Amino acid sequence: MIHAMPLQSNCPQPVIKMLSSSSSPDIEERDSPDMDEDSGQKQETKDQAPDKGHGKYMQWQRSDSPSPERSANGGRGEPAGAARSPDRSEWALLEPAVGYHHSRDNGKEDSVSMSPPAADSAEFRPRPIEVDLSEIRSLRVTERGTLCVIIQSDGSTTSPLRFPSSAHMDSFLDMVNSVTPIVRSCKDKALYLAEEQSRPARATQGTVDTLYGFARFSERLVGTGIKLVRDFHQDPRAATLTGIGKVAEIVLNRGLEDHRPEEAIADALRQHSFELEPPRLQSTQHEGFEVVTEIRLGEKRPVARQKPLTQQEWDDAHDVEGRIPDPDALRRRIFHGGVEPQLRASVWPFLLDCERPELTTEERRAARDQRRDDYFRMKLQWASMSEKQLTRFTGLRDRRALVEKDVTRTDRGEAFFSGTSNITLLHDILVTYCMYNFDLGYVQGMSDLLSPILFVVKDEVDAFWCFVGFMERVCGNFELTQKGMEQQFSDLHALLQVYDPTFCSYLDRNESSQMSFTFRWLLVWFKRELDWPDIQRLWEVLWTGLPCSNFVLLVALAVLVQQRSTIIESELGFSAIVKHINDLSMHIDLESSLKLAETIYGQFRDGSRVPAPVLRILDLPVPPESDAGSSPPAGSVPAAAGADPSPAGGQRSHDSSVSEDERSYEIALASQYM
Amino acid sequence: MSYAYLFKYIIIGDTGVGKSCLLLQFTDKRFQPVHDLTIGVEFGARMITIDGKQVKLQIWDTAGQEAFRSITRSYYRGAAGALLVYDITRRDTFNHLTTWLEDARQHSNSNMVIMLIGNKSDLESRRDVKREEGEAFAREHGLIFMETSAKTAANVEEAFINTAKEIYEKIQEGVFDINNEANGIKLGPQHSPAAAGGMAAGGLGGSQGGGCC
Ligand SMILES: Nc1nc2c(ncn2[C@@H]2O[C@H](COP(=O)(O)OP(=O)(O)OP(=O)(O)O)[C@@H](O)[C@H]2O)c(=O)[nH]1
Ligand SMILES: [Mg+2]
């Protein structure tokens, strides 16, 4: 969605304007599309000029001139708030290129360009960012008052807007405030809420309404005792129990006997607002009744991340014969720091169980030859099929057609995939995978999982077997029934329910209990949410299988809970939540999310009375007494499933008949990677 | 900008029929054949003018792959309009319309306006589904029908705007309850008859681009 591009002094500087059709001291009057003269892109802005609405709105317009003129408001009235002081010319979009489609920066760390570069990027003009002031729900200000994200009522979330100093930010906020009054949230200091949401009456309205529900609810809880808890036990996601966090606050903090009138409960709840950690509930079944106990999570211990694994360390991890005597230590090391980019081609096959650590260099070479033979044997199975034969093999023909359609729509913005040769490799590997695992076949999303692997290992055969290793871990995501995805949604919900019951109940109340807004995160492991280097970092960490095979759920939980106050306080509903989560793409801080995920893992591990099903999601040991009647661990994938050595050693005679093909293939590969 | 109404649209149909290209053509006025396939949902938005009123379209572009059908169903919630797209050069995408329609009817509100779209009309030489067939299907199921090309932009504006007009008419007739957001219609933040009526915008169907989401 957003083209992440570091702001350099010589790159085009966007300018910020505030526009409005109604005059106001700080806001520019908008009357003609021609006012964008200063931006040097009259034509484009005209094309994209929005309707002249009747509201006040801000526009961030990218300018191609290095030092944008700021007096170009047609000389009418005061220049816009943004343009008035010379300093403010430095206001800039962090990601100047705003477009609809997913694209990434090619100039980063370890991107290489092996194929001709992608279509001229100048052709894709960023659209101006526009924000209707009356639509602002909240502004999140971070990085010591220099970065601002604006959240609108439909969940739309702008790219971060970078300010040179907090003083600039203050004047910007003043200006916003003069049009749409904003107040700082008392629960989240980084959040400024548009007045409509923050007015006392309004602020508590939603809460109070639901609280009246809770009050009745808690009455029932008191009256009928344990009924509610039983429901909770049977279906933790039942809609009637959306308020469980709040109920816990009142009922458990005050004891079940404390029967208070609705008013008082509502009052009490109003005081106990979001920031209070409500106790967590757990129920245990005991012959006919249930006992509610409070779940305690462990202490929140910050963790540090390490530097990526170096060549030296990798070499040292091998013995003289080339074995890796302590693969677990190596995995731990990679979990904590990842791998240096140039090492990835060697390390990934090990992480993906395609190189076996107990083999010597010699044995490894032989195994690699074997894999090569196996791969080309499977490849030949489809590559040698005639058109006529395919008409009677529609299962394969249809899959091939789908793969063909999809590889041309996979990461074409990356230089590596902008040409045709690497796209052909993607195609061949995916179709061969269909032959390897015909029952699963090809499902969309797989090409996204393969592309970074091919990019890193740069060898068709290695990429294939690494992909096989990856698919071992995530094949459940691609079942036609989508059972694997459903399971992950419900596991994530169960984790959230324990970790942050208030947030969880907010989502439940807003028709989001299904967690389907995390679909893309989980399906392709944040492939669409992170930039190219970060994808590689995240995946190598997750492939270690540490500290548990479902760690991706904790990463998702970590990313999600970082949005809790934005979502709750901006009062986002179902559609707006989906939109907001989608808009996070390319704005997720990976390292801090990994840290938080690890911290959360520790809290679950060190907690007491954490429900057994939740412990199982995280591969944590279940204390014997809490083991009653819970279901088996769902959706857990074996951490180190070996790559299936498919029926070994295809017939030699067969091979000789295909050697022609193979050879030409290898030559093609060699010329590509030389 | 402020709008009088916000309509939620959803675009559905088999993979590769050109849903994302249609959306991009409508919101950005360009055809970009090279882009990523859709996983989950992506968004677009644009302001149009209907009957002198600003209407913001918030458009949900879904993934067409069969395996993702269940996730797509969850996005129907609260949609006022749907564009059901097939590819005139691929008969199978036309054959699947019935399933899509069943899904749409089952998981959306009953008043949702559905527009049937035969896309890629620029590929006349490869046509596999006759225009009349599309018309017949639409007639049979009470849909509006159009053939479009995301590549040449033919009928793209019309497809989105005609759907909006139909929704707008339903509002005028009182069929849609605009106070219930589950219908996919929201009143604008500053909506008042005076404000909306006072604008110098064009008549029914007039529109300009813009409005990033
Ligand atoms: N000639 C022509 N090609 C088109 C047109 N619309 C789309 N295409 C092509 O069809 C391909 C698929 O289009 P998409 O917009 O990605 O298809 P989609 O329906 O969004 O597919 P999913 O996201 O997988 O559900 C594109 O790569 C375009 O090259 C059109 O109107 N004419
Ligand atoms: Mg698409």
- CATH architecture term of the domain at 243-302 and 482-622 in chain A: Orthogonal Bundle
Shape by Cα distribution of chain B: globular
Number of domains of chain B: 1
Residues in helix, % of chain B: 25-40%
Q: What hetero molecules are bound to the protein chains? A: guanosine-5'-triphosphate, magnesium ion
Give the C-level CATH assignment of the domain at 243-302 and 482-622 in chain A. Answer: Mainly Alpha
Most extensive chain interface and residues per partner:
A-B, 63 and 57 residues
Counting DSSP H or I runs of 4 or more residues, the number of helices of chain B is 7
Could you state the CATH homologous superfamily of chain B?
A: P-loop containing nucleotide triphosphate hydrolases
The name CATH uses for the topology of the domain at 243-302 and 482-622 in chain A is Cyclin A, domain 1
Q: Helical region count of chain A?
A: 27
Rg of chain B computed from alpha carbons, rounded to a whole number of angstroms: 16 Å
Given helix and strand content, the structural type of chain A is alpha+beta
User: What is the CATH fold-level name of chain B?
Assistant: Rossmann fold
**Total number of strands of chain A:** 14
Morphology call of chain A: globular
Query: According to CATH, what is the class of chain B?
Result: Alpha Beta
GO cellular component, one term (chain B): Golgi apparatus
Subcellular location (chain B): Endomembrane system; Golgi apparatus
Membrane topology (chain B): Lipid-anchor
Protein name (chain B): Ras-related protein Rab-2
Task: Describe the structure in brief.
Chain A is an alpha+beta fold. Chain A is built from 27 helices and 14 strands. Among the domains of chain A are: 130-195, no CATH class; 243-302 and 482-622, Ypt/Rab-GAP domain of gyp1p, domain 3 (Cyclin A, domain 1, Orthogonal Bundle), CATH 1.10.472.80; 311-477, Helicase, Ruva Protein, domain 3, CATH 1.10.8.
